[in-house]
Amino acid sequence: MGHPAACDAYEGSSERLSPTELPLRPLCPGCGSERVSLSTAVRVTFEVVSARGCDQDLQVLSHQLDGCGWDDDDPAECRHCGWTGPAAQLGAAPHDGQG
Question: For the chain, what is the mean pLDDT?
Fold first, then answer.
């Protein structure tokens, strides 16, 4: 499962830069845009109880987030050019519209 990660080139630096302060690389294989959207789902498991006589009300005792990130087959889209495809294709060389 993919996830945001620190950039190794800047990890040891005493100056911490946010991702948008770093030089960005093209992600969209359609137009080369540096900004795309990813869609994914997150599963949350709840442990619940219910008091007798309150059949409709559940009380949450705890919850667990099961994974957070994306898979290669999760849908991605570029809002700049309209490209859509799997996340695995992000970062591929942009198509120049020729040949």
Answer: 81
Query: CA nearest 30: which of 97, 98, 99?
Result: 97
Alpha carbon dihedral 20, 24, 28, 33, in 10-degree steps, equals 80
| Vertex 2: Cα angle to 82 and 35 (nearest 5) | 30
Which residue type, as a one-letter code, is found at position 84?
T
State residue 20 phi and psi, 5-degree precision: -80, -10
Average pLDDT of the residues in 44-49? 92
Residue 2's nearest CA partner among 77, 84, 76, 93 is 76
Residue type, 8: D
